[in-house]
Amino acid sequence: MIKTFCEKFGYPKEAEEQFSAVYEKVLADGAARSEIYDIMDTFFMGADESYIPKLDALAQRLGVRAMALYMVFFIMSEKAIEYIYNIKGYSGIYFDIVRDTYYKCEECFKMYGFWGTHCLGWFGNYAKCNLFALGRLQFQPYIAPWDKEGYVKAGDTVYAVHIPSGAPLRYEDVLASLDEACTFFGKKEAVFSCHSWLLYPPQCEMYAPGSNLKKFAELFDIIESNDTNEDLWRVFMTPDCSDTSKLTATSSLSEKILARLKEGKTMGQGLGFIKYTPGIL
Known about the structure:
By secondary structure, this protein is of the alpha+beta class. It is built from 12 helices and 6 strands. It starts with a helix and ends in a 5-residue tail after the last strand.
């Protein structure tokens, strides 16, 4: 199972070996094997993320890294997830959805030095079958709980835009994804929202004019923002970004972000909306 999954979704041999070692520990412990299937029931029920602390406790008992066990747990769940997507008619996009797990595991490797994931809560969206990979972007329909003047009223359907790592964010690819999403969801016009560190207004001012990031940000009407450093790991690929003297900039953007941090300022997130009609831009 581990080998088949890793080969299908392009994981390196090192990842396969690490996941296999954890999986063998689960199989060797009858109580752990039974417990992990009980936890899986909670995962697929989708009511909350109570499965995560249960896996944390199991990892401690087995003497394995929790984030490695998270990924093994997902791999053990993967065939059931594939069945859910297939039976709902989404088999054509399933591969790209699960392929994104590779990039999240790669982030774990870069930050911690081993293969695993800290995104198991995010993977819960797969079990709910409410996440769709369409070209460069991913989309998640939701019912607006509030009014946003000029865009939505409470009860309207909005499509959240998510930006997977692993590839450049080219403007033409973004537009192609938005076009594809409108077709996929059967909309001549759709409202998309994006809540991201890439839309934090002070950061948007750092983007070079005409750059892909600048054009992406300019697509959205950014109506809200908040100050937080919780996404800095995405920039510096380290779990602890509290000491700026230990952070290394690897791009012109990260240099600007690091300079801002050294001035005692924070970074943040922005919430933007776009009412989009295919072919207009």
